[in-house]
Amino acid sequence: MAHNDEIQSTISVETIQPTERDALLPQIPDPTNSENQPNPVQRRRANIQFVALCWTLFLAGWNDGTTGPLLPRIQKVYGVDFTLVSLLFVFACIGFLIGALSNIVLDPRYGFGKVIVLGTVFQVIGYSIEATAPPFPVFILGYAINGLGMALQDAQANGFVASLRDDPETKMGILHAAYGAGALCSPIVATQFAQLPHWSFHYLTSCGVAFLNLILLIAVFRLKTQDECLAQIGLPPAEEGDTETSQFRQVFSLKAVHLLAFFILLAVGVEVTIGAGWTVTYIINVRGGGPSSGYISSGFYAGLMIGRVALLWVNRKIGERRALFIYSFLCIGLQLVVWLVPSLVVGAVAICIIGILQGPMYPIAMNHAGRILPRWLLTGSIGWIAGCGQAGSALLPFITGAVASKSGIEVLQPLLVAMMVFMTFIWAIVPNSVQKGRQIDVCS
């Protein structure tokens, strides 16, 4: 009897006219419908939100561009060798990893607005410690606190932009061009402070930039969750996922997350090792550069900033995945030029071009994460990926410094070439297709 009722129900549904049947089905909003498009007030608010996040990434670039030009002065002031001064990168790495892990727990509990502001508070504290030029153990502790704050902000900013619906690829490129702008400005300022008696006052300047960021984030986002902030600009919240399993466990069960995290670790590590790590020391010691060699670091980051915007059309034309392979191979070739051609000018130009080609890599990887990872895990996943990137910005310069302390700074170039090759290999095995289901690329 129940079977007959099912048949009758099926027949009755099929005999309904299409227009009537459509009225009975759940209605899915049509994004092309003008009624679903943000109004002028929402678009203006969206622009303000985006500018605030760009300033956050400007601060991230400022932070990463600071250390390289100051390294020789820090070594002289504290009387430490390559290995000991590399503890700056180790403690920053520890802070980044703690921040990346904490973000996965803090984000679902407290939300976007509170977590990103908390990250800025940590950064203000870290810079305040460093500005006083305290004893070396306390100085490197400031780097750890700063790293914790950077990881929280980086995770939230990238996760927010990756959740946008209106051309997120371009916005991600512009967001990280702001990072390049910060990394361009910071070495210019740091190079000047490195030659002054009060060299640590550079960190006081950094504290001012971070404090401005704190005020801006509170004023714009008002400690609201990401869904609340998206609603303010006319966007729907992210869909719900598996609520029975902790977000921490879900994120770490995704193989794609770990591959992207490892790729970003290498990409950012290479980027910071070249632009803000040991290249300035290499140019001074091996190529005979003077005290103004820190400006080469600014040249690299100028290229990074330009590449993230100027190459957007290339990414669209040939596809982001293919474009990243091309950029990687060209970077390897140019790094060989820096290594094998004993010319200060040629090396400086090659480093700037590497910056242009390296620029799109990070935003391309973040865009790829937004395409292949579940929406409800995106912020947590990107937090871990970005945190690993920040860890790479500390870990690889530390490894370089430790090796250089035994074998000389000349080892910098072969190490960079090896890192670039390995980075390209990891990108080749990152999943390329949109995965179905709640669990994708689950680790066995």
UniProtKB/TrEMBL annotation:
Transmembrane stretches, start-end: 46-62, 82-105, 112-129, 135-152, 173-194, 200-221, 259-283, 295-314, 347-365, 377-399, 411-430
Domain of life of the native organism: Eukaryota
Transmembrane helix is among the record's keywords: yes
Signal peptide start and end residues: none
Alphabetical keyword list: Membrane, Transmembrane, Transmembrane helix, Transport
InterPro entries xref list: MFS, MFS_dom, MFS_trans_sf, MFS_Transporter
Places the protein is found: Endomembrane system
Span of domain Major facilitator superfamily (MFS) profile: 49-434
An example Gene Ontology CC term for this record: endomembrane system
Gene3D superfamilies linked to this entry: MFS general substrate transporter like domains
Entry membrane topology: Multi-pass membrane protein
One Pfam family here: MFS_1
GO molecular function, one term: transmembrane transporter activity
Key word Nucleotidyltransferase present: no
Family, per entry: Belongs to the major facilitator superfamily.
Matching PANTHER family: BYPASS OF STOP CODON PROTEIN 6 (PTHR23514:SF3)
Name this polypeptide is given: Major facilitator superfamily (MFS) profile domain-containing protein
Organism: Scleroderma citrinum Foug A
Organism taxonomic ancestry: Eukaryota, Fungi, Dikarya, Basidiomycota, Agaricomycotina
